[in-house]
Amino acid sequence: MPAWHKLTTRLAHSYGIVVVETLNVVGMMRNHRLARAVVDAAPAELRRQLAYKCVWYGSRLVEADRFWPSSKTCSSCGAVKEKLPLWGRMFRCEACGLVLDRDENAARNLAALVAAVAGSGLETLNARGQGVRPAIRQAVLEETGSRARASA
Hints:
Number of helices: 6
Strand content: 5-15%
Shape: globular
């Protein structure tokens, strides 16, 4: 699980607001084609780690309700489809004609949710009061014993 820790640390440290979607995992486990992938993905562990790391780094975790129609809502015009089967990977809006990948449409809707939650813009600052941007770090090679010499 070190990959989960690296991912959640990077997300909580780099962004002022992190949004996750609460999924109906029990319902997904009933589908034998999805069950193994859901178990391997461990969404509850990802959310748990994000929750405490967002507190550590001063960011905010926003959880979209499992019944909020992020996949069924058009990210362009806001029209909501009555049904959207899982096998349909493309989102097609009958109201405005938008054709987009289903997951990208949901991601845009979740981003709009975050924008609505952020409102004033203060939440887009990190714990240090700086604008949020991905951290850029460079590795610095140290010679063996260089710290001992520097402190002496």
